[in-house]
Amino acid sequence: MRRFRLPLIALTALVALVCGVLIERHLSAGLSFDALLTLRYVAYGDRHGPEDSRVAIVTIDEATFADPAFRNTPMALWSPQFARVIGALDRAGATVIGADILFTTTAETIVPGLDKPLLAEMRRLGQADRIVLAQAPVGGKMIGPHRQYVLMVGGQKNIRSIAVTVDRDGVVRHMPLLQAGRDLDDPAALPGFAATLAQRAGLDLKTLPRGLARLSPNYADRRIAPTYAMRDVHACAEDPAAAAAMAEAFGGKVVLLGASLDVEDRKVVSGRLVADAEADIRSLPCIEHVGTGITDRRTIPGVFIHAQAVNDLLRGELARFWPGWAEWLSLGILALCGAGLAMTLRAPAASAAIAGTLAAWVGVATYSAGLNWMAPLLGGVSSGIIAFLGGLGLRNLIIDREQRRTVLFLSRYLDARVARKLLDSDQPPKLSGETREITIWFSDIAGFTTIAERLNPEALVKRLNHHFTLIGEVIEGEGGIIDKYVGDAVVAIFGAPLQQPDHAARALRAALAVQERLKTEAGQPDSFQIRIGLNTGACVVGSIGSEKRLNYTVIGDAVNVAARLEAANKEFGTSILCSNATLRAAGPGFRYRELGPIQVKGRVEPVAVNEVLGLEG
């Protein structure tokens, strides 16, 4: 049967490998990345402390809309407030300011001069390349700032796309690194919003991995960045007493200005079970702090996605994914493990082994995620499980079914356990055996010649088959095996092929049970009476015969003694005789009668024999 296993294992593993790759690249749709971020956080916790963020966020939240300085004023007329906040951030020492807001309109035509302060701040910061405005693709068009703001910030050099990539399942896992160009080596390369902010903060984009085309926000902390309400910054903008707090909050940092409302610009992200938009809400000392009003924690505002990307770039902690060859190799190994375990081990052991293998794979993938390398987690689990289930199915349909048929066939000639042991062996049976202490059973039918003369052949065979079935059931019930039938005689073995420390006691119990069952048939016509001889000793047990024909049997002096004891029953008028060696090996629990020694043909020393009477009690 083993010749079928290797090809079947290879075939099953190949199918499972292909299925795993397809699941990882299509059906799971990035769920491996999501799961790895969660597993890494569970295993390692927060990677950075609250003060390690290179980014600070100023949010336009519900509290800002409710503040008297903003309340009852349409956001399109907030130019003076934006100018005051941006100016305050500049004075606090912000390295660069990123406005995750689309300044698409101006109020100059309605209220002349209203936008002047904001235009002045944008012009000053734009000349120093310390502000980046947002544009976004909407309906197939790129929607950007009003032309007045474009002119003030110095044109497109300070305007970048805030586009992110939404996967088929509605989750944001990636964003373009570049707004234009194929890669960083492309002369036409133009970094996107997050990359431009990181570059203005000191990042050399040439140090990024070659061929990197997209960013995958690498959520490793519950707190993405310290967050302040816009109303707090607005209140502290002209307060000299708050200058130190402002500098501590924003000095030397990339500051992102964006909305964090419950109904606007909120995304489901890969780190949704890790990051919390409300985890690091802070207040400034100029105004009483109130809650932000954010309640939907399954999503986070888009400004936090860009904040995470900027932090990843400045920290050098980019999430990268295993290359294709590593993906195929790892999934192939898991597929081979699943198929191999299913086809070589019994179902309970194989199930435990595949569970351990998959647990180890999850551990390896989590450790790899701790190094910012994301493994094909779910594809690997899928490969292992598909291969395991496929292996079990093929084994049941082909290998086990064929083996059961072979065992059933061989059990007509061998004991089923012997047949199963031979089939499970890694090596074919050898023309040799092993020396082992066993107990040998010899039984013969008393007066069989007379009975055979009286019965016709068909009736005699039917009667013998019934008799041998009765004896076989009892012997096998005690763990013995039938070695052979010699005419009307039965030769059985206790203690082989499986080790049985109590083989002698099993043989004695079997002999007594057979005689008891035969007593119940004593009144039937042509019933049999048998004589049993039992002996214990060291014998050679194994597959013995020619190169073309083997027989699992036993050879040794102890076998001859058992045969002589069976014959001695006729002289003593007994039904069960055993040697002293059998009684010693059986231990207490049996009643017997010592009959003295007899001389066995071929042996110099006589053998002490005992009649077995029954069980004690």
Report on this structure.
The protein is of the alpha/beta class and 617 residues long. It has three domains: 2-27 and 326-409, no CATH class; 52-316, no CATH class; 429-615, Nucleotide cyclase, GGDEF domain (Alpha-Beta Plaits). It is built from 19 helices and 25 strands. Strands 1, 2, 3, 4, 5, 11, 12 and 14 form an eight-stranded mixed beta sheet that branches. Strands 18, 19, 20, 21, 22, 23, 24 and 25 form an eight-stranded mixed beta sheet that branches. Strands 6, 7, 10, 13 and 15 form a five-stranded mixed beta sheet that branches. Strand 6 (165-166) and strand 7 (171-176) form a beta hairpin. Helix 2 crosses helix 12, helix 11 packs parallel to helix 13 (377-410) and helix 12 (347-370) packs antiparallel against helix 13. The longest helix has 34 residues, at 377-410.
Largest sheet, described in full? 8 strands, mixed
**Which overall shape is indicated by the principal axes computed on the Cα atoms?**
rod-shaped
Low-confidence stretches: none
Oligomer description: single chain
Put simply, the count of helices is 19
Give the mean pLDDT.
Answer: 88
What portion of residues belong to β-strands? 15-25%
Q: Give the domain tally.
A: 3
- Structural class by SSE content: alpha/beta
Ends distance: 49 Å
Count of strand segments: 25
The Cα radius of gyration reads: 44 Å
Helix content, binned percent: 40-55%
